[in-house]
Amino acid sequence: MDYTRDEFILSTKVAILVTRKLRWGVVGTAGIAVRSVIPGIQASETGELTAIASRDLAKAEETAAKLGIPKAYGSYEEIVAAPDIDAIYVPLPNHLHMEWSIRAMEAGKHVLCEKPIAMNAEEAQRMADVAAKQGVHLAEAFMYRHHPRYEEIAKIVASGEIGELRGIHGTFTFNNAGDAKNVRYRRDWGGGSIYDVGCYPLSAARLITGAEPEAATVHALISPDHDNVDMMASGILEFPNGVALTFDCGMWAAFRNTLEILGTDGRIEVPSAYIGDATYYVHSKDGKREVKQPELNQYALQADAFARNVWNEQPVRFAPSDAVANMRVIDACLESAYARMRVTL
Asked: Which helix (H) or strand (E) holds 288?
Protein backbone atom coordinates (compact mmCIF):
# COMPACT_ATOMS: atom_id res chain seq x y z
CA MET A 1 0.00 0.00 0.00
CA ASP A 2 1.41 3.39 -1.00
CA TYR A 3 1.36 6.27 1.51
CA THR A 4 1.63 9.98 0.87
CA ARG A 5 4.27 11.83 2.89
CA ASP A 6 1.63 13.33 5.25
CA GLU A 7 -0.06 9.96 5.75
CA PHE A 8 3.29 8.37 6.61
CA ILE A 9 4.10 11.09 9.17
CA LEU A 10 0.64 10.77 10.73
CA SER A 11 0.85 6.96 10.95
CA THR A 12 4.30 7.23 12.53
CA LYS A 13 3.04 9.70 15.15
CA VAL A 14 0.09 7.43 15.95
CA ALA A 15 2.42 4.44 16.33
CA ILE A 16 4.63 6.39 18.72
CA LEU A 17 1.63 7.43 20.82
CA VAL A 18 0.35 3.85 20.96
CA THR A 19 3.70 2.31 21.97
CA ARG A 20 4.97 5.03 24.28
CA LYS A 21 5.41 3.75 27.84
CA LEU A 22 6.64 5.24 31.10
CA ARG A 23 9.21 2.84 32.54
CA TRP A 24 8.69 2.25 36.26
CA GLY A 25 10.90 0.97 39.04
CA VAL A 26 9.64 0.11 42.52
CA VAL A 27 11.70 0.67 45.66
CA GLY A 28 10.66 -2.05 48.08
CA THR A 29 8.22 -4.96 48.16
CA ALA A 30 5.53 -3.54 50.46
CA GLY A 31 2.09 -5.13 50.46
CA ILE A 32 0.42 -2.07 48.89
CA ALA A 33 2.88 -2.28 46.01
CA VAL A 34 2.49 -6.01 45.42
CA ARG A 35 -1.30 -6.15 45.86
CA SER A 36 -2.39 -2.93 44.21
CA VAL A 37 0.03 -0.42 42.72
CA ILE A 38 2.19 -2.76 40.64
CA PRO A 39 -0.84 -4.55 39.11
CA GLY A 40 -2.33 -1.09 38.54
CA ILE A 41 0.72 0.12 36.62
CA GLN A 42 0.74 -3.11 34.60
CA ALA A 43 -2.96 -2.62 33.78
CA SER A 44 -2.48 1.03 32.82
CA GLU A 45 -2.39 2.36 29.27
CA THR A 46 0.88 4.21 29.78
CA GLY A 47 3.14 2.28 32.13
CA GLU A 48 5.40 -0.74 32.17
CA LEU A 49 7.15 -2.26 35.18
CA THR A 50 10.86 -2.46 34.44
CA ALA A 51 12.36 -3.38 37.81
CA ILE A 52 11.83 -3.87 41.52
CA ALA A 53 14.33 -3.57 44.36
CA SER A 54 14.66 -4.92 47.87
CA ARG A 55 17.52 -4.89 50.34
CA ASP A 56 17.15 -8.68 50.11
CA LEU A 57 17.94 -9.70 46.52
CA ALA A 58 16.20 -13.06 46.90
CA LYS A 59 13.00 -11.30 47.95
CA ALA A 60 13.25 -8.92 45.00
CA GLU A 61 13.80 -11.83 42.60
CA GLU A 62 10.88 -13.78 44.07
CA THR A 63 8.55 -10.78 43.75
CA ALA A 64 9.75 -10.03 40.23
CA ALA A 65 9.11 -13.62 39.14
CA LYS A 66 5.67 -13.65 40.74
CA LEU A 67 4.57 -10.39 39.10
CA GLY A 68 6.37 -10.73 35.76
CA ILE A 69 8.84 -7.88 36.33
CA PRO A 70 11.95 -8.16 34.12
CA LYS A 71 14.65 -7.02 36.56
CA ALA A 72 15.35 -7.37 40.28
CA TYR A 73 17.89 -5.42 42.31
CA GLY A 74 19.34 -6.15 45.73
CA SER A 75 19.66 -2.50 46.75
CA TYR A 76 17.68 0.69 46.46
CA GLU A 77 20.78 2.52 45.21
CA GLU A 78 20.96 0.30 42.11
CA ILE A 79 17.38 0.81 40.99
CA VAL A 80 17.51 4.57 41.55
CA ALA A 81 20.64 4.77 39.36
CA ALA A 82 19.32 2.47 36.60
CA PRO A 83 19.34 4.31 33.23
CA ASP A 84 16.33 2.42 31.79
CA ILE A 85 13.86 3.69 34.41
CA ASP A 86 11.86 6.92 34.07
CA ALA A 87 9.87 6.90 37.30
CA ILE A 88 10.21 5.45 40.78
CA TYR A 89 7.35 4.38 43.03
CA VAL A 90 8.21 4.62 46.76
CA PRO A 91 6.07 2.40 49.04
CA LEU A 92 8.61 2.25 51.88
CA PRO A 93 7.76 2.93 55.55
CA ASN A 94 6.91 6.59 56.11
CA HIS A 95 10.24 7.57 57.67
CA LEU A 96 12.03 6.59 54.43
CA HIS A 97 9.77 8.47 52.01
CA MET A 98 11.76 11.70 51.95
CA GLU A 99 15.20 10.08 51.70
CA TRP A 100 14.47 7.76 48.79
CA SER A 101 12.18 10.16 46.95
CA ILE A 102 14.92 12.78 47.02
CA ARG A 103 17.58 10.26 45.97
CA ALA A 104 15.43 9.22 43.04
CA MET A 105 14.67 12.79 41.99
CA GLU A 106 18.33 13.77 42.22
CA ALA A 107 19.02 10.87 39.86
CA GLY A 108 16.59 12.45 37.39
CA LYS A 109 13.64 10.17 38.10
CA HIS A 110 10.01 11.20 38.47
CA VAL A 111 8.54 10.00 41.78
CA LEU A 112 5.20 8.64 42.92
CA CYS A 113 5.45 8.45 46.72
CA GLU A 114 3.02 6.51 48.85
CA LYS A 115 0.81 8.48 51.22
CA PRO A 116 1.47 10.22 53.53
CA ILE A 117 4.21 11.76 51.43
CA ALA A 118 6.48 12.41 54.41
CA MET A 119 6.72 12.49 58.20
CA ASN A 120 5.79 16.18 58.40
CA ALA A 121 5.22 19.28 56.30
CA GLU A 122 8.85 20.36 56.54
CA GLU A 123 10.01 17.11 54.93
CA ALA A 124 7.29 17.37 52.28
CA GLN A 125 8.42 20.90 51.41
CA ARG A 126 12.01 19.72 51.02
CA MET A 127 10.79 17.05 48.59
CA ALA A 128 8.76 19.61 46.64
CA ASP A 129 11.78 21.91 46.43
CA VAL A 130 13.97 19.12 45.03
CA ALA A 131 11.31 18.22 42.45
CA ALA A 132 11.20 21.84 41.29
CA LYS A 133 14.98 22.10 41.16
CA GLN A 134 15.40 18.84 39.23
CA GLY A 135 12.47 19.52 36.90
CA VAL A 136 10.79 16.21 37.69
CA HIS A 137 7.23 15.28 38.59
CA LEU A 138 6.48 14.41 42.22
CA ALA A 139 3.07 13.06 43.24
CA GLU A 140 1.47 11.61 46.36
CA ALA A 141 -0.27 8.25 45.90
CA PHE A 142 -3.87 9.04 46.81
CA MET A 143 -5.33 6.77 44.15
CA TYR A 144 -9.00 7.45 45.01
CA ARG A 145 -8.76 11.04 43.74
CA HIS A 146 -8.26 9.78 40.19
CA HIS A 147 -11.60 8.01 40.02
CA PRO A 148 -14.02 10.17 37.95
CA ARG A 149 -16.73 9.92 40.64
CA TYR A 150 -14.99 12.58 42.73
CA GLU A 151 -15.18 15.08 39.89
CA GLU A 152 -18.86 14.19 39.58
CA ILE A 153 -19.41 14.64 43.32
CA ALA A 154 -17.69 18.03 43.23
CA LYS A 155 -20.01 19.12 40.40
CA ILE A 156 -23.07 17.97 42.33
CA VAL A 157 -21.98 19.99 45.37
CA ALA A 158 -21.26 23.04 43.18
CA SER A 159 -24.62 22.71 41.38
CA GLY A 160 -26.57 23.32 44.59
CA GLU A 161 -28.52 20.06 44.34
CA ILE A 162 -27.93 19.39 48.05
CA GLY A 163 -28.08 23.08 48.98
CA GLU A 164 -25.30 24.90 50.78
CA LEU A 165 -22.48 22.78 52.14
CA ARG A 166 -22.78 22.36 55.91
CA GLY A 167 -20.43 19.56 56.84
CA ILE A 168 -18.52 16.42 55.91
CA HIS A 169 -18.09 13.20 57.87
CA GLY A 170 -15.42 10.68 56.93
CA THR A 171 -14.26 7.34 58.32
CA PHE A 172 -11.50 4.84 57.60
CA THR A 173 -10.98 2.02 60.09
CA PHE A 174 -9.71 -1.56 60.12
CA ASN A 175 -8.47 -4.02 62.73
CA ASN A 176 -4.87 -5.17 62.46
CA ALA A 177 -3.88 -4.75 66.10
CA GLY A 178 -2.79 -8.36 66.51
CA ASP A 179 0.10 -7.92 64.07
CA ALA A 180 2.48 -6.50 66.66
CA LYS A 181 5.51 -6.39 64.32
CA ASN A 182 3.74 -4.36 61.66
CA VAL A 183 5.56 -1.17 60.61
CA ARG A 184 2.35 0.76 61.35
CA TYR A 185 3.11 0.24 65.04
CA ARG A 186 6.54 1.90 65.03
CA ARG A 187 6.11 5.48 66.15
CA ASP A 188 9.57 6.57 64.97
CA TRP A 189 8.77 5.12 61.53
CA GLY A 190 5.61 7.19 61.13
CA GLY A 191 3.17 4.65 62.52
CA GLY A 192 -0.37 5.32 63.68
CA SER A 193 -3.87 5.57 62.28
CA ILE A 194 -3.77 9.27 61.38
CA TYR A 195 -0.75 8.73 59.15
CA ASP A 196 -2.04 5.45 57.72
CA VAL A 197 -5.76 5.97 57.08
CA GLY A 198 -6.80 9.28 58.65
CA CYS A 199 -4.99 11.04 55.83
CA TYR A 200 -7.78 9.90 53.46
CA PRO A 201 -10.75 11.77 54.97
CA LEU A 202 -8.46 14.74 55.64
CA SER A 203 -7.50 14.93 51.96
CA ALA A 204 -11.07 14.25 50.81
CA ALA A 205 -12.46 17.16 52.86
CA ARG A 206 -9.85 19.50 51.40
CA LEU A 207 -10.69 18.22 47.91
CA ILE A 208 -14.45 18.69 48.32
CA THR A 209 -14.34 22.09 50.02
CA GLY A 210 -11.50 23.44 47.90
CA ALA A 211 -10.23 25.09 51.07
CA GLU A 212 -7.72 24.59 53.87
CA PRO A 213 -8.82 24.01 57.48
CA GLU A 214 -8.19 26.67 60.10
CA ALA A 215 -7.91 24.42 63.18
CA ALA A 216 -7.87 20.79 64.30
CA THR A 217 -9.02 19.06 67.47
CA VAL A 218 -8.35 15.33 67.80
CA HIS A 219 -8.84 12.77 70.56
CA ALA A 220 -6.93 9.50 70.22
CA LEU A 221 -6.44 6.06 71.74
CA ILE A 222 -2.68 5.90 72.33
CA SER A 223 -1.62 2.29 72.86
CA PRO A 224 1.46 1.42 74.96
CA ASP A 225 1.23 -2.08 73.47
CA HIS A 226 1.78 -0.60 70.00
CA ASP A 227 4.73 1.73 70.67
CA ASN A 228 2.36 4.54 71.73
CA VAL A 229 0.99 5.20 68.27
CA ASP A 230 -2.59 6.41 67.81
CA MET A 231 -4.56 3.21 67.26
CA MET A 232 -7.84 5.14 66.95
CA ALA A 233 -8.46 8.84 66.48
CA SER A 234 -11.58 10.99 66.24
CA GLY A 235 -11.51 14.63 65.36
CA ILE A 236 -12.84 17.78 63.82
CA LEU A 237 -11.30 20.07 61.23
CA GLU A 238 -12.65 23.61 61.15
CA PHE A 239 -12.99 24.97 57.61
CA PRO A 240 -14.02 28.52 56.64
CA ASN A 241 -17.70 29.56 56.65
CA GLY A 242 -18.59 27.32 59.57
CA VAL A 243 -18.07 24.09 57.60
CA ALA A 244 -16.38 21.21 59.44
CA LEU A 245 -15.05 17.75 58.78
CA THR A 246 -15.75 15.27 61.55
CA PHE A 247 -13.77 12.09 61.12
CA ASP A 248 -12.53 8.95 62.77
CA CYS A 249 -9.77 6.59 61.77
CA GLY A 250 -8.37 3.49 63.36
CA MET A 251 -6.33 0.31 63.15
CA TRP A 252 -8.11 -1.39 66.07
CA ALA A 253 -11.76 -1.23 65.00
CA ALA A 254 -14.18 -2.84 62.56
CA PHE A 255 -13.61 -2.08 58.87
CA ARG A 256 -15.33 0.85 57.19
CA ASN A 257 -14.38 3.60 54.73
CA THR A 258 -17.22 6.04 54.27
CA LEU A 259 -17.86 9.64 53.36
CA GLU A 260 -20.98 11.77 53.83
CA ILE A 261 -21.33 15.27 52.43
CA LEU A 262 -24.14 17.21 54.10
CA GLY A 263 -25.97 20.18 52.63
CA THR A 264 -28.93 22.29 53.67
CA ASP A 265 -31.25 20.41 51.29
CA GLY A 266 -29.69 16.99 50.97
CA ARG A 267 -26.59 14.87 51.24
CA ILE A 268 -24.23 12.65 49.27
CA GLU A 269 -23.51 9.23 50.74
CA VAL A 270 -20.37 7.34 49.65
CA PRO A 271 -20.41 3.90 51.34
CA SER A 272 -16.99 2.88 50.00
CA ALA A 273 -15.15 6.15 49.76
CA TYR A 274 -11.59 5.05 49.02
CA ILE A 275 -11.57 1.33 48.24
CA GLY A 276 -14.34 -1.01 47.10
CA ASP A 277 -17.52 -0.43 45.11
CA ALA A 278 -17.59 3.06 43.61
CA THR A 279 -21.39 3.46 43.76
CA TYR A 280 -22.67 6.48 45.68
CA TYR A 281 -26.07 7.96 46.56
CA VAL A 282 -27.52 11.45 46.28
CA HIS A 283 -30.32 12.41 48.66
CA SER A 284 -32.10 15.62 47.63
CA LYS A 285 -35.53 17.25 47.63
CA ASP A 286 -36.35 15.06 44.64
CA GLY A 287 -35.63 11.86 46.57
CA LYS A 288 -32.77 9.39 46.59
CA ARG A 289 -30.87 8.38 43.48
CA GLU A 290 -28.18 5.77 43.07
CA VAL A 291 -25.17 6.67 40.96
CA LYS A 292 -23.52 3.50 39.71
CA GLN A 293 -19.96 3.63 38.49
CA PRO A 294 -18.03 1.38 36.11
CA GLU A 295 -15.45 -0.96 37.59
CA LEU A 296 -12.27 1.07 37.19
CA ASN A 297 -8.82 0.30 38.53
CA GLN A 298 -7.97 3.42 40.54
CA TYR A 299 -4.31 2.48 40.62
CA ALA A 300 -4.20 2.23 36.83
CA LEU A 301 -5.93 5.61 36.57
CA GLN A 302 -3.33 7.04 38.96
CA ALA A 303 -0.48 5.65 36.85
CA ASP A 304 -1.99 7.07 33.65
CA ALA A 305 -2.50 10.51 35.19
CA PHE A 306 1.09 10.46 36.44
CA ALA A 307 2.50 9.55 33.01
CA ARG A 308 0.43 12.16 31.20
CA ASN A 309 1.64 14.77 33.68
CA VAL A 310 5.23 13.70 33.03
CA TRP A 311 4.66 13.98 29.28
CA ASN A 312 2.82 17.32 29.67
CA GLU A 313 -0.25 15.83 28.02
CA GLN A 314 -2.61 17.05 30.73
CA PRO A 315 -2.45 19.63 33.54
CA VAL A 316 -1.27 18.52 36.97
CA ARG A 317 -4.31 18.38 39.27
CA PHE A 318 -2.41 17.58 42.47
CA ALA A 319 0.88 19.41 42.66
CA PRO A 320 3.48 18.80 45.39
CA SER A 321 2.10 21.89 47.16
CA ASP A 322 -1.11 19.93 47.79
CA ALA A 323 0.87 17.18 49.52
CA VAL A 324 2.65 19.78 51.65
CA ALA A 325 -0.70 21.29 52.64
CA ASN A 326 -2.10 17.87 53.57
CA MET A 327 0.96 17.20 55.74
CA ARG A 328 0.33 20.48 57.59
CA VAL A 329 -3.13 19.16 58.47
CA ILE A 330 -1.72 15.80 59.59
CA ASP A 331 0.89 17.62 61.70
CA ALA A 332 -1.86 19.60 63.41
CA CYS A 333 -3.97 16.49 64.03
CA LEU A 334 -1.04 14.61 65.59
CA GLU A 335 -0.09 17.59 67.74
CA SER A 336 -3.68 17.89 68.94
CA ALA A 337 -3.98 14.16 69.66
CA TYR A 338 -0.83 13.93 71.76
CA ALA A 339 -1.16 17.31 73.49
CA ARG A 340 -4.96 17.01 73.85
CA MET A 341 -5.58 20.56 72.68
CA ARG A 342 -7.04 22.51 69.78
CA VAL A 343 -4.35 23.41 67.24
CA THR A 344 -4.67 26.27 64.79
CA LEU A 345 -3.16 26.04 61.31
From this structure: strand 287-291
